[in-house]
Amino acid sequence: MIERLNPSDVHAPLGGYCHTIKVPAESELVFVAGQVGADREGAIVEGVRAQTRQALANLVACLSAHGLTVVDVVRLTVYLTDRAQIPAMREERRAVFGTNKLPSSTLLIVTGLALPGLLVEIDAVAASSIDGTEKQGGRTIAGTPIDYGGATA
What CA–CA distance (Å, rounded) separates 105 from 131? Predict the structure, then answer.
């Protein structure tokens, strides 16, 4: 089973994430390259909120191609070009990931991304248990809810 843990010796998560996730060796991993706010035709949408929404839609499509959903994501990295846009990005991320069964996550503020006009990029690692254990919402669970310390995604 995939285990999530926020150790008591570490501060509560400062955003919507889990400090540690243990993925069993028998799990299949899917690595999703950085997704940006470009639509199917390659056009970059305007604004950090719209780009985050589009990057997450692209991420969901990549996961779906492997029979996975966002509840299978165990690691998320977000690259953002403007610290002031953290609340908007988190709100869009929360709309997709919710506030339960969150992945471990890192947010980086960067000076730029690969193309002019890109404001956010999101990459992920997803894990799917193949050992036949019971799943909830597509993800194997350890059975004990995690206290996220009231943090939001």
Answer: 25
